Amino acid sequence: MRLDVLTIFPEMFKGFLSQSIIKRAQEKGLVEILLHDLRQYTSDKHGTVDDYPYGGGPGMILKPEPVFRAVESVQSQAPRGMVILLTPQGEQYHHRMAMSLSGEKRMLLICGRYKGLDERIRTLADREISIGDYVLTGGELPAMVIIDSVVRQVPGVLGDQESAWSDSFFGGILDAPQFTRPGVFRGLRVPEVLLSGDHGQIRIWRKKEALRRTLQRRPEILKIISLTEEDERLIAQIQEENRGSESAGG
Ligand code: ADE
Q1: Top mutation candidate among 97, 113, 135, 141 for ligand 1, by most atoms within 8 Å of CB
Q2: Which residues lie closer than 8 Å to 169 by C-beta, 6 or more apart?
Q3: Which runs of consecutive H residues, i.e. helices, occur in 6-80?
Q4: What are the pLDDT digits (tens) for 200-214?
Q5: Which of 130, 133, 134, 146 to mutate for ligand 1's pocket (most ligand atoms within 8 Å of CB)?
Q6: What is the CB neighbour count within 10 angstroms for residue 182?
Q7: How high does pLDDT run on average in the chain?
Q8: Are residues 97 and 198 located together in one domain of the fold?
Q9: Which among 14, 48, 172, 212 would be 20 to 30 A from 69, CA to CA?
Q10: pTM of the model
Q11: Domain shared by 103 and 19, yes or no
């Protein structure tokens, strides 16, 4: 996979790209990530990327010319990649989108900035993505969120253990509680089953607790993912337990 990023702050990406899984993915040749400084595509000596809005109003607007020039330059090399514009007005990002984007050969992420961008820049984008209902200073952090979540899904990026873990425990639901040593910490005990060495029981326990947590915290997720018969059975058990504790409490 090749990822191109168009930004006026390439330095913001340096730490992120040189650490951990993203670093390894590049070293293994599984992803290539190229940063493009928007200022290099300006035509004046000051590298002007923004201008006042027509009609007046506060703030500066990202100019169309350097963005078009940069996108056309990056896209002139085949194969043309999917163009994604990061903006709070885009479709809301989620894990399923990360999984589907991980199948792309190339993507170009455009980081918006300032108060806004010239509307004509939107015509360059195949998709507009927002990472959540809050306004950030620019599209750089959202671009990093997308890169991180997509690159993790590229086959071979995670080690066998990590990917087996995320296959079985992030089939779209929240993760089960996790524990490490010590077995008792400030009076809080690790659940007995995790110490039992019985891998069949541990798998079921984790699945059930992941479902319980999802049911408690993000019940809407369970309505949109496909559940196995085992999931349905465990959910029924959890609901039965909840009814039991409600009637015991009341
Ligand atoms: N740019 C500013 N805020 C954003 C957000 N929430 N998502 C994507 N891009 C943004």
Answers
A1: 135
A2: 175, 176, 206, 207, 210
A3: 11-17, 20-27, 64-75
A4: 999 999 999 999 999
A5: 130
A6: 10
A7: 94
A8: no
A9: 14
A10: 0.91
A11: yes
